[in-house]
User: Fold this.
Amino acid sequence: MIVLGIETSCDETAAAVCKDGKIISNIVSRQIIHSQFGGVVPELASREHEILLNRVVIEAIKKANISLKDLNAVAVTQGPGLTGTLLTGICFAKGLGFGLKIPVVPINHLEGHIFSNFIADPSLRLPFICLLVSGGHTQLWYIEAMENYQLLGETRDDAAGEAFDKGARILGLDYPGGPEIEKAAIGGNPSKVKFPRSLLGKNNLEFSFSGLKTSLLYFMDDFKETSSISKKDVIASYQKAIIDVLVIKLKRAIKIKNVNTCVIAGGVAANKCLRKNLQAALDNQKIIFPDLSYCTDNGAMISYLGEKKLEYKKFKSLSFSASPNLKLS
Ligand code: KG4
Ligand code: ZN
Assistant:
């Protein structure tokens, strides 16, 4: 089976082709227009998708060495995400599906992130725990079986990716903040500044990052670089405060659910310091990370999950629409 996946939930215009469980092309066009505003401007993002989508899809088809007629289905992100950007992808997918007379499969973006781990490791078996850490979500999931998921805990305020993005802005770094903070923290001492770690009470699986962000804001108000503390030390300490909480909570969830496999998904999963710390803390468990290109938003995860869904469900209707607050459960 050959499935085209389209992803336009935020500021990446992405398309990929999955053939029998293997990704044979994966094209992502990151919209750089937003960096001057320090965050995504929804209206601009929709317009950029309109401009880029056709080109990105054609490139994905070409790279896969197939023609449009070879497609058996189109999978597209239905939500969560920005209403306008989701609609551009969905309208495009429906038009293509209608013209080619093939099914169009609506995909939950979060489920796509979780399942991107099967691309990284096809031997992955259910059940497992997933730490989903992106720009909009920080959640711990118990993935028991296909479409049988239990939310164990999530953030009460900012997502981990948001803590990176907002922290970067306070620190005078570019958007998106995650990769910028990661780069700027190299060589810094992560123990120099004691930033707070929230909600560490026994068995608590929830997260909170807004206090950490405020604490960085106050710290930077009075901060002057000296020979004993550099800006690099502050950045490394801030990054470590985010990572420590993620590690502690994932470890806790694994213990509570008594499973020995866990996966990490979402943009923040690209962070090498997080990967290193998780690997050190969970040396008895199987821990899987998607390839870096499958961590941030991409069409591969949408095409892969689209094919999986088609294995046991029929998708005939084109009546679905964008669902900006789509939940996974
Ligand atoms: O999954 P994603 O591409 O989009 C959403 O669904 O939100 O995640 C984007 C988030 C951004 O907040 C970005 O700063 C963060 O992932 N991110 C990172 C890294 N690369 C991307 N955070 C930490 N370290 C990174 N290397
Ligand atoms: Zn995402």
Q: What stands out?
A: The two ends are 27 Å apart (CA to CA). The chain has ten helices and ten strands. The longest helix spans residues 231-257.
